[in-house]
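The data layer described in this paper is built around a simple, fixed record for each protein. Because each token names a local backbone shape, the row as a whole describes the fold. We quote a single record here, exactly as it is kept in our systems:

***
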Amino acid sequence: HDGGMTTPTSSTTDQIIDPRPILDRALATGAVVVAGVRPEQLTDPTPCTDMNVRAMLAHLIGVLDRVAALGHGEDPFAVTEAPVPDDRWADAWNESGKRAADAWSDDAALERPMALPWLEGSGAEVLASYFSELTVHTWDLATATGQQPDWDDTVVAAALDARQILPAENRRALHEEISTEMGLDEVAVPFAEAVPIADDAPAIDRLVAWNGRDPHR
């Protein structure tokens, strides 16, 4: 992998896999974890070193709002993270999740060509690319708040399938390249270097390790 943009093609299959049921399942797992956050934990650190629990909640909801923008054919990076009262995080998750799901309700969105700085493809492929970020940050939130959710095997497998979008090495350079191109301080993708892990480790551990987290830390 040269570390550049991955451009999936439709030559391998004429059948677009519908990622929307997997989004629904990712939203369900996230809802459990978000609802499990206690008020006194909001300022605790998370495995994503530049975010505490409150910031991670805001970022996760922002991811859902970007997913919704994509479904509507809008610019996902024009989305800003709106302030949420501390007693409304679970409601905000559910509301943003419903908006994201509704935005993709039209089957035509799955076939619409879309482009992100690190990926070009159909709407279905671009939507599927968000499963990794949603799942990894849900893990960040669960780990930070002492939760052990029942990870959905289908969601984790779909997130692992998105690994080819990120190069195995030199991710920091890719992060800087994309951030500069977009005029952003940061982009909403985990770009930490991969952590070595056994091939037979649980799927969730392999996913977070690929995204730069040490699941045994």
Observations:
- The chain has nine helices and two strands.
- Strands lie at 113-116, 119-122.
